[in-house]
Amino acid sequence: MKTLFPSSRIKIILVLLLILLAGASYVYNQVLINKIMEQERNNVELWAKAFEHNVDPAHDKVSRNLNYVANTLQLYPDVPDSLVRLIREAELDKSTVNFVMTEIIQPDHLFNIPVIVVDESGFILHARFIDDENLNSQDLIHRFSALHEPITISLQDRERVLYQYVYYGESSMIQYLRFFPYVQFGILALLLGVGYTTYRSITRSEQSNLWVGMTKEAAHQLGTPLSSIYGWLQLLKDRTQNDDEILSIAYEIEDDVTRLKGIAERFNKIGSQPELKRLSLEPIIDDVMTYMERRLPKLGHKIDVMKSIQPDIKANLNAELFQWAIENLIKNSMDAIKEHGKDAYVSISARKEGHLIVIDIEDTGMGIDRKFVKEIFKPGFSTKKRGWGLGLSLTRRIIEDYHKGKVYVYSTDLNKGTIFRIQLPV
Question: pLDDT category, 334, cuts 50, 70, 90?
């Protein structure tokens, strides 16, 4: 067996490269998210401490005590009014509380994180960056607690301690970063896909030029000996006009030489756009089958050849190239048959199904291993000890590139047989 798998290796390398880049991007993205989340928690903790400081009942107690002192001092005539006024101004000032409220709790520019403060019963006391329609305490608590542990605020109110809880979500930056690896993965996949498609296009173009050069050179080289053989055959027929057996052999050789001439013409047409005509399939397939049947004994095969062709099926065809494709598939089927018992056969059927013409070539050969089903049409692939692995590749080119159809392995079983299917547009 000889096989060439450059495209498979390139696919594997590209996929591994894509996975590696995606994995590295994902890990780096997670590290970045964790860093930002840590910073955001520090910001929320600072905000929670500021909120705790601002709502601490101790501030009210101090305010009540200052008012009490001011009212008491007013009862003593010897105490200056200026002292009482200073005490009241100090109580009304509350500069620390006002600073915390205006510079830390209320501003939106410090951090853009949705936050709620709830009491012990779950009632929302304060909300930050929460839409009014989403202001459902239980839903928000459940959603935020799944993201982060709440921050506890403890307030000393006379003889008991009051607890409040700060729940917070994720900033818009975190949410964007969570989707970024998928976007990056998609862009990488697109770029690698474009790169691979470009590489494939260049490779196929190079292969196409190589095949065209080889086929045209082969057609040119066949021309001279074929012309010479025609001359020798004519001379043989002229000198053995009375010997029927030799004449019969000469005519058979002439048929084969004519066939070789047709093959040379086929090679010469590779690389140029063939002329398609509206032709009936039946005579073309019959011609191939007749030729192959007459030469089965010479090939050492005892194989039954069967056909079932729906009449009056027509398609746009180039007769010579289409014959070549059918001949390659039939020859491939005959080569695949190792057991030559009474059930060894090759059959070809053609029928119309909707807007498609379906042609099946079936054999009872050794079948194709499943792992090679997608490889057999690639140039250079062959499971035979001899051969260049070009027959099925040329068949696909003839059917798909020139006739705008499709050829593929419809079914196969090891040691049971294979069905090749051709689909042509009506």
Answer: confident
Helix (H) or strand (E) holding 152: strand 151-157
Query: What does residue 253 show for φ and ψ, rounded to 5 degrees?
Result: -60, -40
pLDDT one-digit tens code per residue, 179-193: 888 888 888 888 888
Q: CA 92 to CA 71: how far, in whole Å?
A: 15
DSSP code string of 83-138: HHHHHHHHHHH-HHHHHHIIIIIS-SSS----EEEE-TT--EEEEES--GGG--HH
Residue 371 confidence (pLDDT): 82
Q: Which fold has domain 274-425?
A: Heat Shock Protein 90 (3.30.565)
Q: Identify the three-state secondary structure at position 350.
A: strand
Q: CB atoms < 10 A from the CB of 157, how many?
A: 12
Task: Give the side-chain half-sphere CA count within 13 A for 347.
Answer: 14
CB 425, CB 278: distance < 8 Å: no
Domains of the chain, by residue range, sit at: 113-170, 274-425
By the 10 Å C-beta count (0-12 exposed, 13-18 middle, 19+ buried), 389 is classed as buried
Whether this model's pTM surpasses 0.85? no
First to last CA, the chain: 38
Q: Which of 35, 411, 410, 390 is nearest to 211 (CA)?
A: 390
* Strand 345-353 versus strand 304-309 pairing type: parallel
CA distance 314 to 335: 29
Q: Indicate the length of the chain as a whole number.
A: 426
Q: Residue 236 and residue 226: Cα distance in Å, rounded?
A: 15
Whether 153 contacts 51, CB under 8 Å = yes
Average pLDDT over residues 95-113: 64
Give the containing element (helix H, strand E) for 304. Answer: strand 304-309
In Å, how far are 39, 132, 144, 256 from 111, measured between CA atoms? 10, 20, 17, 88
The pair phi, psi for residue 200, each rounded to 5°, is -60, -40
Q: Which residue shows structure tokens 């909300």?
A: 127
C-alpha 423/C-alpha 321 separation (Å) is 15
Encoded tokens for 108: 């939106």
| Averaged pLDDT score across all residues of the chain | 79
